[in-house]
Amino acid sequence: MNTIETKSNLNIRDVVTKLEKMHGKAEWAFRHDPMDELIACILSQHTSDSNSLRAFDKLKRTYPHWEQVAEAPVNQLADVIRNGGLADSKAPRIQQALKEIKEREGAYDLSVLSAMSDEEARTYLMSLPGVGPKTAAIVLCFSLNRPVIPVDTHIFRVAWRLGFVEKKQGEAKAHDTLQALIPKDIIFRFHMVLIRHGREVCKAQRPRCLECPLTNQCEYYTQMLTTEIPTNGKATES
Ligand code: SF4
Q1: Residue range 34-144, CATH number
Q2: pTM for the full model?
Q3: Which of 148, 170, 186, 222 could serve as a FRET partner for 132 with CA atoms 20 to 30 Å apart?
Q4: % of the chain surpassing 70 pLDDT
Q5: 174 CA distance to ligand 1 centroid (A)?
Q6: Residues with CB under 6 A from ligand 1
Q7: Ligand 1 site-directed mutation target among 12, 19, 212, most atoms within 8 Å of CB
Q8: What are phi and psi of 169, to 5 degrees?
Q9: For residue range 29-80, what is the model confidence (pLDDT) as tens digits?
Q10: What pLDDT, in 10s, does the model give residues 197-222?
């Protein structure tokens, strides 16, 4: 059975509605312009939200202008963002992205994205050094309110367990599958509620299935029923 093709929009909307009853409904709100969002996102790679937020705050306080970040000695910049982890690789990556933007736009400014289609803007961002599909989607979704879905490890895990994507696809390709599958008007809500569900309930090692409202439509849960009786803290990722 091709499980992906069997998922109707109604099914996806039902999943979002059930999860929002459990976790609450997120509303989009502006938080950063595209430049800030891009650099904050690079800082957030492979670290916790709290660490990356601390690093971003310190970066903005130390260097109020992007030109100062671009021209700072790379070791000094790495020290400033040390709280965000992997500072010695993130500092040159940030400077490379800034240099490329300045060369293209003549300024440290990504307002050019506003006039582009979603796909054009995604392609533009992914052509910048160190920017992959997740970072591009975060910039578009959170700074410009575009219906582009960022797929992180939590969303990917919940999505393949429910049968929306194939596990063997991996996160990067799952982005394209989910982008085509999720109705545009609920992409932001889908993103937000699946992340929360993945963090708090559908955990990697010990999914709390008995607390989950999706057991009757979850392929992973159904598979577990044939091999063991799932109880909180007993089921593990295959
Ligand atoms: S039933 Fe279990 S595996 Fe399926 S989505 Fe819910 S918590 Fe995750």
Answers
A1: 1.10.340.30
A2: 0.87
A3: 186
A4: 91
A5: 18
A6: 158, 161-162, 201-202, 207-209, 212, 214-215, 218, 220-221
A7: 212
A8: -65, -35
A9: 988 999 999 999 999 988 888 888 999 999 999 999 999 999 999 999 999 9
A10: 999 999 999 999 999 999 999 999 99
Q: Which atom of ligand 1 is nearest to the CA of 218?
A: 4
15: helix, coil or strand? helix
Residue 90 is a catalytic residue: no
Q: CA of 42: how far to CAs of 81, 127, 128, 184, 196, in Å? A: 11, 14, 12, 25, 21
| Pocket perturbation via mutation, ligand 1, pick of 154, 214, 219 by most ligand atoms within 8 A of CB | 214
Nearest to 125 by CA among 137, 109, 143: 137
Which helix or strand (DSSP H or E) is residue 123 part of? helix 118-126
Domain ranges within the chain, ordered by starting residue: 3-26+150-227, 34-144
In the prediction, which pLDDT does 230 show? 53
CATH number assigned to the domain with residue range 3-26+150-227, chosen from the 4 options 3.90.1150.10, 1.50.10.10, 3.30.450.20, 1.10.1670.10: 1.10.1670.10
**Terminal alpha carbon distance of the chain:** 20
Cα separations in angstroms, 74 against 81, 99, 135: 11, 13, 22
Q: Is 19 exposed, middle or buried (0-12, 13-18, 19+ CB in 10 A)?
A: buried
pLDDT of residue 228: 64
Kindly name the residue from 18, 102, 134, 184 that is annotated as catalytic: 134
